[in-house]
Write a structure and sequence with these properties.
By secondary structure, this protein is α+β, with helices and mostly antiparallel strands. The protein has a single domain, classed as Deoxyribonuclease I, Chain A (4-Layer Sandwich), CATH 3.60.10.10. It is built from 6 helices and 12 strands. The strands form 2 sheets. The chain has a 6-stranded mixed sheet with strand order 3-4-2-1-12-11. The chain has a 6-stranded mixed sheet with strand order 5-6-7-8-10-9, with no helix packed on it. It is globular, with a radius of gyration of 16 Å.
């Protein structure tokens, strides 16, 4: 099975500042993922021509879609989007906003994959290190997260963790292994000259990761300000 995670920056190129959802679609289609986790997805916002990006993307890829609006922008919003080839058995969303900082959130979905059920957690964490540690603690301790513990779990998204401090903390204590390590192989930001390993993935519960990589095509480098992360994996038999 293949998962792609990407902060698409609302479909606006990191260098040319040009809006083009078609470039995002072309990059994703070239990787042919079964599961797609996208951050900073616009819905009815002027900068992206008032497009309903979750609807357009789910229609193009003919996938089951779960959208989480996190930040209001005028009459619209942007947030997190999960697309899945396979049915979604359950879906939840939790807020990870701390105080007056920008709203953040996480999506918790259980996917009925051909290999068995997968607990997929998709998030976009904050810019401050202390805030991120608080967000991970809230996520891992949340009753909705705990309720899916019997299933193999994959956590993925834009962690904004420049110093890679989350992997050795609570995530490790809770039994999660970092897929995107060493970070020198997983630099994703800024897309045109990537120096930061911000887009990460963690697994537990016997998930067998066969290969993980960053997409560094010429199109990916202009389509967003992040590069996409691709993970090939198997879910263990129930």
């Amino acid at each position: 099975m293949r998962l792609l995670s990407w902060n698409i920056h609302k479909g606006i190129g990191g260098r040319d500042r040009r809006y083009s959802l078609a470039r995002i679609i072309d990059c994703i289609e070239a990787e042919n993922p079964d599961l797609i986790c996208l951050q900073e997805v616009d819905r009815h916002v002027r900068r992206s021509r008032y497009d309903d990006q979750p609807r357009l993307l789910s229609h193009f890829f003919r996938c089951h879609a779960v959208y989480q609006s996190t930040v209001a922008v005028g009459a619209g919003s942007y947030g997190n989007l999960v697309l899945s080839r396979w049915p979604i058995a359950s879906r939840h969303r939790i807020t990870l906003r701390r105080g007056s900082r920008k709203p953040r959130g996480a999506q918790l979905v259980v996917v009925d994959s051909p290999e068995g059920r997968l607990h997929l957690v998709h998030t976009h964490l904050g810019l401050a290190e202390q805030e991120r540690h608080w967000q991970v603690q809230r996520l891992l301790g949340h009753m909705l997260f705990r309720s899916a513990e019997p299933h193999p779990t994959l956590i993925v998204g834009d962690f904004n963790d420049w110093r890679d401090t989350l992997a050795s903390g609570l995530l490790k204590l809770e039994g999660f292994r970092q897929v995107t390590s060493p970070i020198s192989r997983f630099r994703t930001f800024p897309a045109w000259l990537a120096i930061g390993s911000l887009d990460k993935a963690f697994v537990r519960g016997g998930i067998d990761v066969r290969h993980a990589r960053v997409v560094r095509t010429s199109l990916a480098k202009v389509a967003s300000d992040h590069l996409p992360l691709v993970i090939d994996f198997h879910v263990p038999p129930a």
